[in-house]
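Protocol step 4 of 6: structure prediction from sequence.
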Amino acid sequence: MADDDRTLPDQTQVQQLQSVLTAQQEELFQLVLSRDDRVLSLLLKNPHLTEDHLLALLKRRDLSEALLSSIYRRHKGNLSNRLIRALAKNPVTPGAIMRNLLPHLLLFELLDFCFMPGVTADQRIAAERTILQRLPTTPLGSKMTLARRGTAAVVGTILKEGDPKLVEICLNSPRLAEAAVFQFINGPRAAASTLSMIARNGRWKNRPNLQLAILKNRLTPTIWFNLWIPTLPVRTINQLLANRRLAPAQRKAIQDELSRRKTSH
């Protein structure tokens, strides 16, 4: 009898697990809260399991990678947009699956995903890459919104396109990094008008590295030489004068300032 008693819990457990396979819809909403991985795995085989049950399950942040992989394998042939979003938003979803999911998200779903709490660095980078891949075919209006709301990588990439409508918005983005502005100044898409936008911008105009980069660009309007050169030390001015890429008007502005300083001493 004692031996029979010892086997009773195991038999009860087996019966409970078997009941998961036949549970009805209301019961399934309770079972998705289970902490037992075996219960959750069996849930996926229940014929009464619906998308709403899966969405409730995917809200959990304590699921195993194995379970999330199983959900994806079972439903990848007919994943709805709701399930794609739910799987993508779960921080435990394996990277290989994430790469398959992200192309199915809409542009601004990807952007929202980048800022979602709990998203890992790898997931955010993957979402950013997907956004960047779509930029060449993204309409101007959507790019303007991305320039306002995007991550540093997205805003920096849009800035490099050099469209004056986008440059102005990018420069006012709180996420834009100085390194991206510096790269743009030295890049092939910088123009006199956009260089002047940077030189006028309250956030960027007083940054020494950017000022020098602007003054070294042969497309920079002479007005910025007239405004900034008088504030620079002679050593820096001489370094600028040694730049062989300067336009004649720029070189003259520098030489005029050096002459003025000589005569004032």
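Step 5 (inspection) to follow. Residues 15-101 form one domain.
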